[in-house]
Specification:
Elements lengths: L2 H22 L8 H11 L6 H11 L5 H22 L9 E2 L2 E2 L1 H4 L2 H20 L7 H15 L4 H14 L5 H26 L4 H28 L2 H4 L5 H5 L4 H5 L1 H17 L9 H12 L3
Antiparallel strand pairs: 1-2
Helix pairs in contact: 1-3, 1-4, 2-6, 3-4, 3-9, 4-6, 4-9, 7-9, 8-9, 9-10, 10-14, 10-15, 14-15
């Protein structure tokens, strides 16, 4: 299957996810209008929609309705957007550029950015809990449980805390500690994105676990690739400031292992991720291609 097929599939998915986000985050004309404007600014347009694409492709393995998968994809992209809005704040990474445009606190103000992030997170769970997402309340509850776990203190938020503590301590982390930090901060949400389609499709436990394991290895490779990009890409290529990890003394596998060994580690993880898809046949070819894409991308 040519790489152009993956490019086209990801572009189509990104378009559909943006359309779903526009529907789920309509413009408001009342006094809350600035909040909705900031939420839409943070969430709609730009980004690879990697997490949403994982949801759609995972759901496709089990014949899940596209409309239901798009709602889950949009919810996860809302949570991802919220994390970026808060991560960019002066109290965190203090970034001015995200996805090639000013960060939310620069385009609006800090207070609005904080509220926009909060609102995106809570609205994501509203979307998952609504009957339009799935007729089975047990499935909806499982989606809520898994996303809250991936985003919470044992997931994304916990990883951000570890990142901040490591930076404040100004002491090098070993490979195990860096791996745990990155698994929590980035990997858990990618894991759930890969698993979510199996939850929607009420898949057998073995197939659900296979997608989760795929997402775990893909997420680890993605984070290493992100660190490599920070060290090698220009701000124009990445759509955000680069070189900040080294300046801030942040713990990354690139900093610990060097570029060549980090690339080898990412390549090993990509091979492992593909191995988890053996039970899905040709239907999972786009997911296999996505594994290669995450370490070849330049943005």
């Amino acid at each position: 299957m040519p790489a152009a097929t993956l490019t086209a599939a990801m572009a189509q998915a990104a378009y559909e996810i943006d359309e779903a986000l526009k529907m789920l985050l309509p413009p408001e004309e009342g006094p809350e209008a600035p909040l909705f404007a900031a939420m839409r600014y943070a969430c709609i347009g730009g980004g690879k929609r990697l997490r949403g694409f994982l949801v759609l492709e995972g759901a496709r393995q089990f014949g899940v309705a596209r409309s239901a998968a798009l709602r889950v994809a949009a919810a996860i992209e809302m949570v991802h957007a919220y994390s970026l809005v808060h991560d960019d704040l002066p109290a965190m990474d203090d970034d001015d550029l995200r996805r090639g445009k000013p960060t939310v606190h620069k385009a609006f103000d800090e207070a609005t950015a904080i509220l926009a992030g909060d609102a995106l997170q809570s609205h994501a769970f509203t979307v998952l809990a609504e009957e339009d997402t799935h007729s089975d309340p047990g499935v909806r509850a499982e989606l809520v449980r898994c996303l809250s776990k991936a985003a919470g203190p044992r997931g994304m938020c916990g990883g951000q805390m570890l990142d901040m503590l490591a930076e404040a301590a100004n002491a090098p982390l070993d490979e195990v500690a860096i791996g745990r930090l990155q698994t929590l901060k980035t990997g858990k949400l990618i894991e759930f994105s890969a698993e979510a389609g199996a939850v929607l499709g009420k898949a057998p436990a073995a197939l659900r676990h296979a997608l989760l394991a795929y997402g775990r290895d893909l997420g680890a490779a993605f984070q290493i690739a992100d660190d490599i990009l920070d060290a090698t890409a220009t701000a124009e290529e990445a759509g955000k400031a680069t070189g900040k990890d080294a300046v801030a003394g942040k713990a990354t596998l690139v900093g610990l292992l060097g570029l060549d060994r980090a690339r080898l580690q990412a390549e090993r993880l990509v091979l492992q991720s593909k191995g988890h898809l053996d039970g899905f046949g040709e239907r999972a070819d786009l997911l296999r291609m996505l594994s290669d894409f995450v370490i070849e991308r330049r943005s």
